[in-house]
Predict the structure.
Amino acid sequence: MDDDLKTSVRGEILQVADLPTLPDVLEEVTRLVEDPDASTEAIAKVISRDQVLSAKVLKMVNSPIYGFPGRISSIQHALVLLGFNVIRGIIISTSVFDMMVQNMKGLWEHSLGCATACNIIARRAGFEDPEEYAVAGLLHDLGKVVTAVQLPDLHGAILSTVRDKDVTYLQAEKDVMGFGHDRINAWLARHWGLPPNIREAMARHHAPQLAEFYKPMACVVHLGDFLVRLFEFGNSGDDQTAYLRPEALLELNFKMSDLDKVMDEMAEQFIEVSDVTF
Amino acid sequence: MIESLEKSLFTRRQTAFLLSPDVSLAAMLRSLWPPDVLGFTVFEKGGRAIEHLFTDPPDLLIVDNRLTDIPATEVANLVKSENVYRQLPVVMCVDPVDVETPWNWNLIEVDDFLVRPFNPSEVRDRINLTLCRAMRALDANPLSKLPGNTSIIQRIQQLIETGEDFALAYCDLDYFKSYNDKYGFSRGDEVLMMTARLIVNTIRSYHGIMSFVGHVGGDDFVFILPPDKVEDACQRIIAAFDDIVPHFYDPDDRKQGAITSVDREGKARVFPLMAVSIAVVVNTGGRLTHYGEVSSIAMGLKKKAKENPRSCYVIDRRQG
């Protein structure tokens, strides 16, 4: 399992190939990168709205070329270390969603919502660097983007399996491909040299109790994913009620009252996020 | 056109050895540069040259494959196998027949080769390029690839001579040694690479102004900016460094905000997380006239900055 991941159905292959990003985010970042007065904070904020662009930036800064592989898990830090010229290069080599936009819009909102939720949960749990948890939340469904872009036929089959059998998207992926986006995530994150905490959260957000080294981060993303579905903010491919692992709440030391507070804060911030016009 | 040293590519007179029985080659090479820019010493036999090569190495060695007493490849390998001479650029001269079958350049570690019949202007530029490339490679820090001491000194001296106002900042890391000792040199190198990137990107973000970043070696870096930008740059570097460096520690050490490592006496001691100290020398109105003054003032300030265990900067603003 190096450069490709082979699905069980029809032996089709997923590759680590270029993934497209949202045109509006790209335009905004391009404008900022050309503006000599723009700060890295401002650019990081815009990039953090797009899971594919964020993944690319982290992939780049964690590549062995720079000499500190797997160390950087915040977009802001990545930008400081990459510099504007490299960001310009990433922008130039990034293609945009075209036909995909409508199809993937719900997933994009779901990911953005999950990132917001993870930030709130991590702060409530008293963890340092809540931004890193937000990055993990932003990237947790990246595997779904990969399937949708690279194997559109199988993606279609997964969506109709969700509808016809009334199963979760993850179950439908397993029925159609033999594995789910959690495994694609693990494969992508390893191939791109993403930091181990982000990688484990991406790979274990459906089964945080199995996380080996960074259980708290996997639990935060698990809970964030659950809550953002509860809010019906965006769409992650199915409309099932997700199963909330009690272990996740235990790990974070959360009571029901904590969940209430997190949800209040999410409600407030989602109004802001919805204001982001694309 | 023949140019004087002041206008040439090199900062001082270059010397070259030519090992060749080919008299016309020697004549051509000598005609391409004035002797005060690049001077040639010619040896018709290889054997005689080797002792000179070892005791008084030139800036460039040109070896002709037509040497009769010793194979040219052996001379090249003799030079390249000794680390002291390894950086000396070696150019091989060959006849077309010599390279009819491919050469193994891993075994013959020369830097370039020239094929007969020689085209004088091509030879001139190939050799100029070889010398420039060797200077760049020699002075770049092997880890960060940033310019090293020679370039740093040159840049400062140049600014002093042109009378431009500038601020020179000297950065080094506090507790780098204890980090290196505890986590090993490869993780120490990661921190240096991160620091180099951080400084370079911060300095480059000031558009359209004179700036420079160099790597003195180890955990010592230097940057140059106009005096009105330097304080802002120090603040930004410190903020970014303090934000990023905890990520290079293991989670437990990071949580504690300290590591246990051995001190210079070999005793276990607790050290804080790394911090960056910056000493800034401002040269306005031509107050300073020599590189040595700049560096000795910087060293004094550095001690002051080091007294603070946290990241900090100290600026010397004495007026001339």
About this structure: The mean pLDDT of chain A is 89. The domain at 97-274 of chain A is CATH 1.10.3210.10 (Hypothetical protein af1432).
